[in-house]
Amino acid sequence: MTATLAPGLKHQILLTVEKHHTADAYGNPGVEVFATPALITLFENVCGECIRPFLSENGFSVGTRVDIRHLGATPLGFEVSAQCEVIEVDRRRVVFRVEAHDGVEKIGEGTHERFIMDNLDLFLQKTREKFQQG
Fold first, then answer.
1. Annotated catalytic residue: which of 11, 21, 44, 99?
2. Which of 6, 30, 48, 56 is deepest in the core (most CB within 10 A)?
3. Please, which residues bridge with residue 81 across strands?
4. Active site residue 105
5. Does the annotation count 21 as an active-site position?
6. φ, ψ at 90 (rounded to 5°)
7. Nearest to 82 by CA among 114, 115, 45
8. Does the annotation count 22 as an active-site position?
């Protein structure tokens, strides 16, 4: 890590709901609203972006836990805003509070945990070794 990461750090990103974000696209035919897997991806993205400036040159982070509630349906074309706040840092483990809004209501909330890794090359090498074992 290149700087001190501490609770209180916040970040926000925006996403416009498109067809590939819908429950229909995830295998729930006819349900043309923002899908729960897409919400989880949005939360992972906002948290990953939040801590990216604190990573070493070859560093990265991986999601290890997601605990969310999807509170409301969001139609195609709506803009979703996802916010995160770092609430805990324990060495390489970072815990976030996450929340999403669609301009009308809060549509999701919960927590997300990520681990900071320092060596992408080593991580990928271990993954390749695992693949060869399978």
1. 44
2. 48
3. 14, 101
4. no
5. no
6. -130, 95
7. 45
8. no
C-alpha closest to that of 113 among 34, 51, 21, 38: 51
CA–CA distance, 20 with 67 (Å, rounded to integer): 23
Number of domains in the chain: 1
Would you state the structure tokens that stand for residue 133, as one six-digit string? 């074992």
CA 52 from centroid of its chain's CA atoms: 12
Domain membership flag for residue 17? yes
pLDDT digits (tens, 9 = 90+) for 79-123: 999 999 999 999 999 999 999 999 999 999 999 999 999 999 999
Structural domain boundaries, residue 125: 10-133
Does residue 4 sit within a domain? no
pTM for this entry? 0.93
Query: Does residue 3 lie within any of the structural domains?
Result: no
